[in-house]
Design goal:
Elements (H helix, E strand, L loop, with lengths): L1 H15 L35 E8 L3 E5 L3 E4 L14 E4 L11 E3 L2 E12 L4 E8 L26 H12 L5 E6 L4 E7 L3 H10 L4 E9 L3
Parallel strand pairs: 4-7, 9-10
Antiparallel strand pairs: 1-6, 1-10, 2-3, 2-6, 3-4, 5-6, 6-7, 8-9
Protein name: DUF3558 domain-containing protein
Organism: Nocardioides koreensis
Keywords: Signal
Amino acid sequence: MKLTLALAVLLLVAACGTDTADTVTDPATDPADSRSTAATPGAVSTGSIPPWVHGEVSTRTLATVMDTGDPELCLGPVAESYPPQCRGIPLKGWDWADQHGRFETSGDVRWGLFKVTGTFDGTTMTVSGAIPEEVYDALRDPERPEEPLPSGDAGLAGPQQQEIQRKVEAHPLPGTLSVYATPAAVVVEVVHDDGSLQEQVDAAYGAGVVEVRSMLVPVIY
């Protein structure tokens, strides 16, 4: 009986280790089943953040300048810790001495809220000016868009908007900071859009379905 059982086990092991026509292949690992993101419906190609080459840009409104060794401009969410935490784009030409008494410190960390102006090459912002929170007047800010939410924005987003949000998150635009769905549109906040990112999502999802909001905007003279 023991000998018969041992032989049965050996035969089972040999069968499991043999490739046959009945072998099942996991589709997720089958090279023939691999798909590129470009072939996915609604996919948007990713790449570099578009630079602004036609003069200066500024932050949409006040933004956090964070310095834990090198100054960065945080255009997205900021963790409400002490000191706060965030990651942003590098700032070139930032001098804290120009903002004496208008920022906070904790150890070697320095930070403050500023409306920052400069040029943007797609990676780094070179600073030409900054208005601290203490003297910033949003009502007199020519670059601050009034931007009411799209019509029908009140309430919860429906399944269609939520599905589009998932697709946008799966294929993020360059410089994406946040994505959220409203009943009217899926809103994507990005570091900077020169109009090309909006054209991409319009082509992928249809006009008015996804709204791209650039956190860096052209300076109005």
